[in-house]
Specification:
The chain folds into 2 domains: about 325 residues, outer membrane lipoprotein receptor (LolB), chain A; about 160 residues, no CATH class. It is built from 10 helices and 26 strands. The strands form 2 sheets. Strands 1-13-7-6-5-4-3-2-12-11-10-9-8 form a 13-stranded mixed beta sheet. A 13-stranded mixed beta sheet has the order 20-21-22-23-24-14-15-16-17-18-19-25-26. The two termini are about 25 Å apart.
């Protein structure tokens, strides 16, 4: 969690911008992410403490003896108790009946009948003597020895992420719409994806989710009905695969043809056999009546739920400030695929790095994230004028005992290196700098105005304000320091970017000066506000020596640490 937070902060500070609109769009987006991820980091720390305490409570609590527990009668529960929880939000999302066929290589493997009124699924397949069922809390109902039983270790939220993610990878669907819907359901306090994604896909995916360079759009008419087809592009080994929507923008088919499959565990790809898969969605009335069932608890489930219920369930209390703008993925299409592509194509290793990285200046700043309880982090920008690399050191009150983290961006190698000094050990991780993709943000959305001059750490500073309907961004720079830091907000080199369509004031601010303060204000949610303020500028020599660090290769089959 720590490294994720650091990566997001760096993305906020060092983001490629080929136009003024791109810069503003990504800046405001990363401001939100930085604030949110810091909160998540704090939650992660609290979770660790809570986990230890919960395990102790579960394993040491004085309760009935195990023998007495085993002999306690199990009760038969009413048919659909799951629907009494979060009923409104569930029905708002699952709003239509649908019959789903799962086919493999021309054979019908399973049929799922989804009833939107009951928010429940009936499962039928040849090797099941009686239908199976799934309710809206993720309980699976099975028939055996003359009765239905239900079980649900899968109702834990982690399952709502794991299984659908595997299906998305198998069917090569864009993950961004699924991920943001998962987050929304979690924010609303409900069990996310209780039907493991198969049903959820019908309510998540829309044609606009496929309107970008990885898909070819066409229309076709079948039996008098018009359909929109999206054929897969840029997906080697999956030629001929497609998704299909009807004239009401409803998902009706996901067809995947695997001509060849190459696995790459380092970027999360799973192996898949050659063949054809087809999901068919038919929107017609369905009636599902969940049977009464006796809950069966697996061995160790009490312990698992005792650990997880407060971390997962209790941690997902409904928010009172749900904002649909927070769940818009229109500006992140293809992002996950670009990251995977960058990982796959990135060939830089420790041997390609220079022996040392040297810096002449240190700009010390403090970043404040204005959540309910203000979070602060010390950011020190390490600068060497004229170099094609730049680094930032980060330290917070919570992490001060965990050592020092330095993020370095080497533009010659298109590589980010994270150097970690912790408890007497030194490690480094090497990552590609992902392609940020394109943005359709319109420059006319922003109003740019001059701010009154102000003095920051003894330097006279000029300011610009950028404002749209949602954000106000105030940025001050100085030209008196005799030092430039153009990639304070740029993954580019120290040379000014070729951005002719930018306002000249913006070019001057970022290419000819040193940023001393940045204030980002979310008009709707103050918790997303971010402020970065310069505290000191010092001319000091800093050297990072590669030989002192071991390489941490988290996904490598050859071992985690390398010299």
């Amino acid at each position: 969690m720590k490294s994720k937070n650091i990566l997001l902060i760096m993305a906020c500070l060092l983001i490629t911008s080929t136009t003024q609109a791109q810069f503003l769009k990504k800046l405001k987006k990363k401001a939100e992410e930085a604030a949110e991820r810091t909160i998540l980091r704090k939650t992660d720390e609290a979770v660790s403490k809570k986990t230890e305490k919960t395990i102790d409570d579960v394993t040491t609590k004085k309760d009935k003896p195990d023998k007495e527990k085993a002999e306690a009668p199990e009760t038969m529960e009413a048919a659909n108790t799951a629907l009494t929880k979060n009923t409104k939000t569930k029905k708002a999302f699952y709003n239509q009946d649908v019959v789903i066929q799962l086919r493999e290589n021309g054979n019908l493997n399973q049929t799922q009948y989804f009833d939107a009124n009951e928010v429940a699924v009936k499962l039928e397949q040849d090797d099941m003597p009686e239908p199976g069922y799934i309710d809206s809390e993720g309980f699976i109902y099975t028939y055996k020895n003359g009765e239905y039983t239900k079980s649900s270790i899968v109702a834990l939220q982690s399952q709502g992420m794991m299984v659908p993610t595997m299906l998305i990878e198998a069917y090569k669907l864009p993950p961004e719409p699924f991920m943001i819907e998962y987050q929304k359901q979690t924010d609303q306090g409900q069990t996310a994806n209780p039907f493991n994604g198969i049903v959820e896909f019908a309510f998540i995916y829309k044609p606009d989710d496929f309107r970008y360079e990885d898909y070819k759009e066409s229309t076709q008419t079948l039996r008098g009905e018009t359909y929109t087809k999206f054929e897969f592009l840029n997906e080697p080994g999956y030629e001929g695969s497609y998704v299909l929507f009807d004239n009401q923008d409803r998902l009706v088919e996901i067809y995947t043809k695997v001509n060849e499959s190459k696995q790459n565990f380092e970027i999360g790809e799973m192996p898949r056999e050659k063949g054809e898969s087809l999901l068919v969605y038919d929107y017609k009335p369905v009636t599902v009546s969940l049977p009464q069932a006796r809950e069966v608890r697996a061995q160790g489930q009490d312990l698992m739920e005792g650990v997880m219920k407060n971390i997962v369930k209790g941690g997902n209390q409904p928010k009172d400030d749900i904002d649909e703008d927070d769940y818009n993925t229109s500006d992140s299409k293809g992002m996950t695929k670009r990251i995977k592509k960058s990982l796959k194509e990135h060939k830089v290793s420790a041997s390609d790095l220079p022996e040392t990285y040297e810096f002449d200046w240190a700009l010390q700043t403090q970043m404040t994230l204005n959540a309910k309880k203000k979070e602060t982090m010390e950011l020190t920008f390490l600068i060497k004028e004229g170099a094609s690399y730049q680094a930032t050191r980060m330290r917070s009150e919570e992490s001060k005992n965990m050592g020092l983290v330095t993020m370095l961006f080497d533009m010659d190698l298109n590589t980010m290196i994270m150097f970690m000094d912790a408890q007497g050990s030194k490690f480094m991780q090497i990552h590609p700098i992902p392609d940020p993709g394109k943005t359709k943000e319109n420059i006319d959305n922003y109003k740019i105005s001059d701010l009154p001059t102000k003095t920051i750490i003894g330097y006279n500073c000029k300011g610009l304000q950028f404002e749209d309907e949602r954000y106000v961004m105030k940025i001050y720079h100085t030209s008196e320091a005799g030092l430039r830091l153009p990639n304070f907000l740029n993954f580019g080199t120290q040379k000014p970017s070729n951005i002719p369509d930018m306002d000249p004031r913006v070019i001057e601010q970022f290419s000819k000066g040193l940023i001393m303060e940045m204030d980002i204000i979310d008009k709707k949610k103050s918790k997303n506000n971010v402020n970065i303020m310069a505290k000191a500028l010092k001319k000091t020599l800093t050297t990072i020596e590669k030989s002192k660090y071991k390489t941490m290769a988290l996904f490598s089959s050859g071992g985690m640490f390398k010299n």
